[in-house]
Amino acid sequence: MMLRSALMPRCFLMLAAATCCLAAAHAEVTLPKILSSHMVVQRNMPIHVWGTAAPDESVTVTFHASTGTAKAGPDGRWSVYLPAEPAGGGPYTLTVKGTNTITLDDILLGDVWIASGQSNMEMPLMGFNGAPIKDSEKVIAAATRPEIRLLFVEKDSSEYPLDDAKAVKGGWSQCTPETAKTFSAAAYFFGLEIQQREKVPIGLIDTTWGGTPAEAWTSLETLSSDAGLMQVFAGRAAHMNREASERRYGEIAKAAVAAGRPAPAPRGWKPDPTSWEPAGLYNAMIAPLTPMPIRGAIWYQGEANREAGYAETYSRLFPAMIQDWRRQWRQGDFPFLFVQLSSYSIPGDSGWGLVRDAQRRTLGLTQTGMAVTLDIGEEKNIHPPDKETVGKRLALAARSVSYGEKLVASGPLYRLAYPVGDQMHVWFDEAKGLNAKGGALTGFELAGTDGNFVAATAKIEGDTVVVSSPQVAQPKFVRYAWESYSTANLYNGAGLPASTFTSFPVP
Questions:
Q1: What one-character-per-residue DSSP string does 443-477 give?
Q2: Are 157 and 275 in contact (CB under 8 A)?
Q3: Is the peptide bond preceding residue 91 cis, with omega within 30 degrees of 0?
Q4: CB 3.0 to 4.6 Å from 131: which of 44, 48, 224, 383, for a disulfide?
Q5: Alpha-carbon distances of 273 from 24, 207, 240, 402, 411, rounded to whole Å
Q6: What is the sign of the dihedral through the CA atoms of 498, 500, 505 and 507?
Q7: Nearest-5° angle of CA 469, CA 475, CA 476?
Q8: Following DSSP, what letter does each residue of 98-151 receive, concatenated?
Q9: Region 15-38: what's the mean pLDDT?
């Protein structure tokens, strides 16, 4: 009896192992959820198809005129690369054969763009939470665009990088009024502009989550390798503490009422520990996408990083996240285009300016572009309804950075400033045709060696701006459009607004 009892666990384990091996031997070939019918395959790059099967199972992939074969490894994973192909032709069929056969149809060759960030990128064409999109009904009605394909990654978080997204909404789909209305408005307008100008199919992947910080979208590998980013771990733990959260909600509600806005509902702002966990969203909503060749990424985020203690880190965190994604995709410095935070009134808040300036400084990374949106913000609406301008300005950046067009893709960008007596002279890139839209030039501030900024008078002289203030006899620093809600009005001849900037040293 004792012998039987002692043998039972071992026999059970052997039986379980045999059952697992038997199951593996009959495992069907599978594809990740982000590969489906109606998708766009990135043109001019090796075509990657991957998935799982039984260990050592032979898998054959056929697409258009190319065929490749691979054998699944001991863990059941397999991967096939087929030769690159140009855009055009199709639609095509992709066939994957092992013990079973998978057929995907209506596939196009074109450009694939990742769209990510928080609520202003997530905001769909139909609007949400009572916030509308400008001309949404008209735009949705005209959204039958068979050359644009959409993929929506469901919200998810993970403690480790996932091989496959847990859920996508219906797989890839053709762009129709029904599929477009719940898709990112900024991404849709971007994709529409690019498709109409480049005349190639466009695939858009919406992987967004409102109210989330940049560190949640950055891998643990990158966050933990930089001592300057260590505070995001302790800081977010404290932020998600219930008592601290309730206290912070009270502060936000009070500020909102003082500014003439309704107090937000507690669930409308309080962080979801799942979505705020450092690396959590990268693991679940970005890592599964990295095996897929792409043209580039568009990004709209920063509101969740503007609080004291976090805004100061954004100039380090944001470029680290971009470089992290590029390493993970392993296809070089792909174009990364982002939206600078728009105008929105938060009285006494300096974090908005810090984040906007950090975004501007991130243009120091190669193959990046920024859409300035100061002029389309609304004082009491954190979700500006004009996402068409956002999409078109992102498309301008893409046309310059990714498609090589010679055009003015940006408003004036701060280059340098130097004092001459009691004046500060400011030079800009993209400065041809500098003008003050709507009247006298506004938005400039000056500071002396004490670093205390005061409102200043500014005037345009050719391709420079001269700034002065009777309160600052010896100016040392200058900044522009620093308030969270700014009516700053410097533009260039292309009709594009100047970016927030400060010459004060980075925190």
A1: -EEEE-TT---EE-EEEEETTEEEEE-TT-SS--E
A2: yes
A3: yes
A4: 383
A5: 36, 18, 6, 36, 38
A6: negative
A7: 145
A8: SSSEEEEEEEEEEEEEEEEESHHHH-BTT-BTTBPPTTHHHHHHT--EEEEEEE
A9: 68
CA-CA-CA-CA torsion sign (302, 308, 311, 317): negative
C-alpha–C-alpha distance, residues 474 and 438, integer Å: 30
DSSP type of residue 481 = S
DSSP label at residue 201: -
* 223-to-7, 84, 220, 364 alpha-carbon distances in Å: 48, 34, 5, 20
Amino acid at 385: P
Residue-wise pLDDT for 177-219, tens only, equals: 999 999 999 999 999 999 999 999 999 999 999 999 999 999 9
Q: What is the pLDDT of residues 80-95, one digit of tens each?
A: 999 999 998 889 999 9
CA distance 48 to 322: 22
Distances (CA, A) of 493 to 350, 393, 408, 430, 463: 30, 15, 9, 9, 11
Q: Write down the pLDDT at residue 224.
A: 93
Q: How confident is the model at residue 9 (pLDDT cuts 50, 70, 90)?
A: very low
pTM of the shown model:
0.89
**CA–CA separation, 10 and 262 (whole Å):** 65
Structure tokens at 49: 């198809």
- Residue 236, pLDDT above cutoff 70: no
Tokens of 180: 């477009």
Q: How much is the average pLDDT of 39-67?
A: 97
Residue with tokens 């003439």: 260
Write the Ramachandran bin of 397: left for phi over 0, alpha for psi from -120 to 50, otherwise beta: alpha
d(C-alpha 215, C-alpha 235), whole Å: 11
